[in-house]
Amino acid sequence: MKFFNTLSGKKEGFRSIRPEKVYLYTCGPTVYDYAHIGNFRAYIFEDLLKRALVFMGYEVKHVMNITDVDDKTIKKANSEGRSLHEVTDKYIKAFFEDIDTLNISRANHYPRATEHIKEMADMVKILVQKGYGYQKNGSYYFDISKFNGYGKLAKINKNELRTGERIESDEYEKKNAHDFALWKKKKPDEPYWESDIGPGRPGWHIECSVMSTKYLGQPFDIHCGGVDNIFPHHENEIAQSESFADKKFVNYWLHCHHLTVNGSKMSKSKGNYYTLRDLIKKGTDPMVIRYLLISTHYRKMLNFSFETLAQSEASLQRIRDFLCELKDRSVEPGENPLVEKMKDQAMTAFAESLSDDLNISMALKAVFDFIRKINKLLSENQIYTEDSKRIVSAFKKWDEVLGILPEDEDTELEASIKEKIDRRNRARKEKNYALADKIRDELCKQGIILEDTKDGVRWKKK
After folding, report:
1. Which of 58, 101, 169, 315 has the fewest CB atoms found within 10 Å of its own CB?
2. pTM, whole model, 2 decimals?
3. pLDDT at residue 383 greater than cutoff 70
């Protein structure tokens, strides 16, 4: 496999530290609000990466942090007059509901920042002892002038950095590189923890350094996030982690590009801000959202619009219709040797595309080319029992990566649904079309679409 490594600025062959095992860290949610579709662009890219690695035979140990104390979470709690935990627990619960809705596979560990305060204070203490950190007015800062490699991820010229100035906020502009906060002193309107370095709370950047290395060691294989995390967050992670341990932090850095909405930055003031829940309330199938977010290469900017959402729905429906047609076809025993050859070619093209820096466009092309070829054989009645099994098996294998067909296509209908379909069939035979249409509408609301064909009625799930 090859990945574009932000650290080197080029595509590199991937080699894991441990044979056939990959240790992966992905930046998780800051739990002060519901995650929006831009957040899920990153989470789904990371899910695709993990699934692709598993597809290629790797065992993946995945850690995703949960930032439950930082400037944003504290501000939200103060504005609502609630405790930090009351606010963060609500949005942690929502986050897990949302990733399950989008069929994002769970990480092995979801460490929370508030559960690792002692380790963070200990890291700060050692950084100060080694001369990389210093105290000023009760807070502790990292001296970027002491770390020779500062700027290597974001490609900042360290000779142009404005050193000696300090910044308390977690985020700042690339052009204004300052000494950044490792530990923030106790303030009247903020939660704080007692520690060996005094009362206070950790800076945002130290959280990921501690939690990633605690669960994955140092160095580990892959660190992911959005391009907006490159600076300052990931740059600062590298500086403090490598200064602390005197060795490389991460081998491969993968970053996904921004998501825009109708060509503009997403903003509540523009009315183009959408959470996953907003789109579901509008009647959008979550798997269509997943398909849209997965279908553009992660290093390309993705533009969200209801037009592109409709295009994704059509593409996903094409796959579903194909599998539905295959399932409902009465096929004769036997096999067509062409099918096995086509399947092997498509599987190889799919794997080779994923291996090339997750080239999802070419991987999906392999799937749709396969559908087109099989449809031609179906039209010629050249698909047999064993062929059908092979085709379904191929799609199940592909879906281990894509995750867009989470339900087994052979799922049995509930008895009440079957009874409604039977009643509708009887109504049609009795020419009671009003009743038949009423039952069809009821089933549609329950997520079952009926299609009347020359071979009888068939159903599929929305």
Report:
1. 169
2. 0.88
3. yes
